[in-house]
Amino acid sequence: MSLEGGTVLVTGGSRGIGRAIALRLVHDGATRVALGYLRNDTAAEEAAEEVRAAGAEPVLVRGNVSSPRVLDEVRALGPLAALVHNAATGVIRPALEVEEKHWDWTMNANARALLGLAQAAAPQMTRGSSIVALSSLGSFRTLENYVLVGTSKAALEALVRYLGVELAPRGIRVNAVSGGVVETGALDHFPNREQMLAGGRERTPAGRLVEPNDLAGAVSFLCSDDAAMVCGQTLIVDCGFSLPA
After folding, report:
1. What confidence tens digit (pLDDT) does each residue in 29-86 have?
2. Catalytic pick among 37, 101, 146, 162
3. Rounded Cα distance, 37 and 127, in Å
4. What are the backbone dihedrals phi and psi of residue 225, each rounded to the nearest 5 degrees, phi first?
5. Residue 158 has pLDDT above 70, yes or no
């Protein structure tokens, strides 16, 4: 099954990496793109206009991606050719300053939401369709103040493996893409933003940071027929950033 003529959902699809993924999937043949977003209506409308200009019908899905209302809206979209869980959030603090509410918020949005989305969408998805989650290197590397997000991404990748095995007999592929440092608005929440960007450029063998279109290309591959035998894997797209000792 290709994306030609199909409907796709991209959570966190109004900005940055999510918007790049949405536009790439339109390029790959999707004709209806649901853009999940939390509350920035202006960014969502701008992204919808880009999707429309690219030749597809945009559908805006506003709200907390793990909420019952949003999951009902996902079910109402009908069969999805691809579901991409890109939405992510989290409290950036040292481990000893984390509160229970911070844990719940981060884990629910980044990991539990994928389970809810799969439960809502998979029953209607047909053979050859795909679910792709966006992860990060913090799932297996320790990054400053990243304990909550990193832990949630580790849980996300574990869930991808379990869903991958469980849904494979239905012909639904489940995989993840994990990127290196990407310069998007999300980095504005990190107190060491400039250090992260500088370190990313210095440590990456390619001499440049990963860009949203790099991750969109990886998602495109995992949603294509060429990835028919890729199941439960996390594809790292960091041009070797995570390899040096």
Report:
1. 999 999 999 999 999 999 999 999 999 999 999 999 999 999 999 999 999 999 999 9
2. 146
3. 27
4. -65, -20
5. yes
Of 113, 110, 183, 118, nearest to 146 by C-alpha is 110
Whole-number pLDDT of residue 72 = 97
For 60, residues 6+ apart whose C-beta sits below 8 A from its C-beta are 34, 35, 37, 44, 45, 48
Among 37, 101, 153, 162, the one annotated catalytic: 153
162 part of the active site: no
- CA–CA dist 204, 240 (Å, integer): 6
**Closest to 240 (Cα-Cα) out of 198, 219, 210, 215:** 210
Determine whether 146 is an active site residue: yes
Chain segment 206-220, per-residue pLDDT in tens: 888 889 999 999 999
Determine the pLDDT at residue 173. 98
Q: Is-contact 24 35, C-beta < 8 A?
A: no
Task: For helices 100-107 and 147-167, give the axis angle rounded to 10 degrees.
Answer: 40
